[in-house]
Amino acid sequence: MKALKIFLASITPGLFLIGYNIGTGSITTMASAGASYGMSMTWALLLSCIFTYFLVVIFGQYTAVTGNTVLSSFKQQFGKGFALFVLGSLLLSEWVSCMGVMGVVIQVVQEWSRPLTASGEGFNPVLLAAIFGAVLYGLFWQGQHRFFEKILSVFVGIMGITFILTMFMVIPDPKEVIAGLVPKIPDGTNKLLLVAGMVGTTMGAILYVVRSILVQEKGWTVRDLKLEKRDAFVSAAAMFVLSIAIMASAAGTLYPRGLKVENAIDMVNLLEPLAGRFAISIFVAGIVSAGLSSLFPIVILAPWLLADYNNKPRNMRSTSSRLLVLFGVALGFVVPVFGGRPVFVMIISQALAAIATPVVLGLMLILINRPSIMGGYKASRQRNLLMGVIVLFTVMMAVAGIVGIAGQI
Predict the structure, then answer these.
(1) 231's torsion region: left (phi>0), alpha (psi -120 to 50) or beta?
(2) Residue among 135, 112, 104 nearest 290 (CA)
(3) Angle between helices 319-331 and 125-140 (to 10 degrees)
(4) In contact, 350 and 204? CB cutoff 8 Å
(5) What is the dihedral of CA 152, 158, 160, 163, to 10 degrees?
(6) Dihedral angle, C-alpha 303, 304, 305, 309, nearest 10 °
(7) pTM given for the model
(8) Which H helix or E strand runs over 283?
(9) Is the Cβ–Cβ distance between 166 and 245 less than 8 Å?
C-alpha cells in the first residue's frame, strides 16, 4: 500500500493533465468519430497521443533543467509581445471553454434526468449550474496544490472506471480496433473536422504550458528526468485508453446502425435504447466527472498563467486569484441563462487554442536549442527533427480544422 501511494504521488502531474485533457470536448469528438467511422480513426488518436508524450517530456524537461516555466521564459527570451499573444490566446480559449464545458455537462444531466421529473423537462439548468459552480469554487477555496491534485485524481479515477465499463458493455469487434491502426482518411463530409478535433483535444498548447507549471510545483530537477518521463508516459497512455474507450462505446452501438453523434445529448438519446438505462447512467456519470475534471483546472488556470507570465509565486489564496476563479465559474452560467449551442462554443474554444499551439511549439523549439539555456541538455538532431515534424503537423491540423469549421457554417 505504501509503495502504491508513493507511485501515485509520483504521477500526480500526469493525472492532472489527464483530468484537464479528457473533457466534454474530447468525449463529443471521440464519440462522433466512433459513431461516424467506427474504429477507423484509431491511428489519428494513437499518433496524437505519441506526439503528446514527446511534447510533455520536452516541456517538463525544459523546466526541470532550467527551473523556469514556459510563459516567463517566452517573455524573457522573446519579449512581451510573443508572451502576451500566447497568454491572451490561452486565457480567451480557456474562458470560452468554461462556457462550453459547463453547458454540455448541464445539458447531458438535464436530458438524463427527464424521466425523473414530473414535467419531463429534467432538472433546472440554472440550478445545476449553481450546484456545479459551488462545488468547483468550494474545492478551489482550499487553495493548496496537493489538494487540487487529490481532487483531480478522484475525478480521473471515476471517469476512467465509468468509460471503460461502458466500453466493455458494448465493445466492438477487436479486429476493428486493430484495423483502425492503419492510417487512412475515411469518406465523409466532416472527416477533416473530426481528425483536427481529435488532435486538437489531445495536443492543445495549454497542455504543455501547464506541464511546465506542474513540474515546477513538483520541484523536479535534472535528477528527476527519469521520473518525469515515466509520469509523461502514464499520462499519454491513459489519455489513449480513455479516448479509445469512448470511441469504442459509440462504434459498438451507433456505428452499425448508421446513427450519428453531433453533440453530447445525442449520446444520451441514442445510447440509452441500445445499451440500457444502467449503462447510460454510468456513461453520464463519466461525462459529469470528465466535465468537472476539466473545468476544475480551467478555472484555476487564469491565476496560474498570470503568475507564470509575471514570474511570481502562485498564491491561490490571494484576493486576485479568488476573483479570477470566481469569474471563470461565473462564465459557466452563460449557456444555461442565455441559451446557445455549447458544442459550437466548444468548437470556437478549440479553434482559438489551435492558433496558439504552433507558436508555442515553435518558440520552445528555439529555446531547447540554445546552449546558454539548456547546457548539456540541448536538443539532439533526432529531437529537433521530430519536433519539426510535430510543429508542421499541428499547422496542418489547424488548417484542416479551420477548413472543416468553415464547411459546417
Answers:
(1) alpha
(2) 104
(3) 160
(4) yes
(5) -140
(6) 100
(7) 0.80
(8) helix 277-310
(9) yes
The full set of domain ranges for the chain reads: 40-408
**Cβ proximity of 190 and 408 under 8 Å:** yes
| Top-level class of domain 40-408 | mainly alpha
- Residue for grid cell 445525442: 266
Write down the pLDDT at residue 178: 62
- pLDDT for residue 295: 80
Q: What is the pLDDT of residue 345?
A: 58
Q: How far is CA 247 from the centre of its chain?
A: 16
User: Which amino acid is located at 166 in the chain?
Assistant: T
Q: Could you tell me if 254 and 34 are in contact, meaning their C-beta atoms sit under 8 angstroms apart?
A: yes
Q: How far is CA 306 from the centre of its chain?
A: 20
Measured distance CA(261)–CA(30) in Å, rounded: 10
Consecutive sets of 10 residues in the chain, 409 residues long: mean pLDDT of each? 51 66 70 77 84 92 92 91 86 79 83 84 88 84 64 68 68 61 61 66 80 87 89 87 80 69 63 63 75 78 86 81 88 80 58 72 92 90 90 77 60
Torsion of CA 160, 164, 167, 171, to 10 degrees: 150
Q: What is the DSSP letter of 379?
A: P
Helices (H) and strands (E) in the chain, counts: 19, 0
* Cell (9 digits) for 84: 502576451
What CA–CA distance (Å, rounded) separates 392 from 388?
6
DSSP 70-109: HHHHHHHHH-HHHHHHHHHHHHHHHHHHHHHHHHHHHHHH
Per-residue CA distances from 338 to 106, 131, 309, 326, 368 (Å): 13, 18, 33, 19, 46
Q: How far is CA 225 from CA 49, 110, 392, in A?
A: 20, 45, 27
Separation CA 228–CA 11 (nearest Å): 8
Which among 50, 77, 47, 48 is positioned nearest to 62, based on CA atoms? Answer: 77
Please provide the size of the chain in residues.
409
CB 246 within 8 A of CB 264: no
Please tell me whether residue 392 adopts helix, strand or coil conformation: helix
